[in-house]
């Protein structure tokens, strides 16, 4: 498997690892998303000063308003975070004067 | 770094690995996207019978119509592919009767 394929697979397995816990086994509840973010995105959570971060994120992403995130609702969150990280990376990369 | 953070990092490094080649060093040209897909998404390319696949993909994703993909235009492609893979995974997972 290539690096890009592996990263796609990781997104799927990480999502399902937390989604399968309580209630609906194929979606993330607020509690499950919180657990996922605490364990898998600790550096992102540290930058968030608002204690309602998880609640706000789920509200923003929950398109069908069922208070749960399915995989299609979760991916745009990871995509958005990755785009934010890349902006930081590009900035840093430019500063170092690399091509 | 957690698994999810690593997969976000991989998307960034894979993109830049190919983007940095010719012309604009921060975007993928059609040639660079083709190279990326041949090397990093060989299984996806195999399923595509149409020889214009790369051309069609770049047209679909290139929001600012500059015939290049920047990272923000590239991420929705990986996101869409991952969602398609997850549907396949969910189907397969159900069949195996796992929780």
From TrEMBL, chains A, B:
It holds the Pfam family S_100. GO terms for cellular component: cytoplasm; extracellular space. One of its GO terms (molecular function) is calcium-dependent protein binding. Keywords: Calcium, Metal-binding, Repeat. Residues 49-84 form the EF-hand domain. It comes from the Eukaryota. InterPro entries: EF-hand-dom_pair (IPR011992), EF_Hand_1_Ca_BS (IPR018247), EF_hand_dom (IPR002048), S100/CaBP7/8-like_CS (IPR001751), S100_Ca-bd_sub (IPR013787). The keyword Ligase does not apply. This is Protein S100. It comes from Cyprinodon variegatus (Sheepshead minnow).
């Amino acid at each position: 498997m290539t690096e890009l394929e592996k990263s796609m697979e990781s997104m799927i397995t990480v999502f399902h690892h937390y989604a399968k816990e309580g209630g609906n086994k194929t979606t993330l509840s607020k509690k499950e998303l919180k657990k996922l973010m605490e364990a898998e995105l600790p550096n992102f959570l540290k930058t968030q000063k608002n204690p309602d971060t998880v609640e706000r994120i789920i509200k923003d992403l929950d398109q069908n308003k069922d208070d749960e995130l399915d995989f299609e609702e979760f991916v745009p969150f990871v995509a958005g975070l990755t785009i934010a990280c890349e902006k930081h990376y590009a900035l840093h990369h430019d500063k170092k004067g690399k091509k």
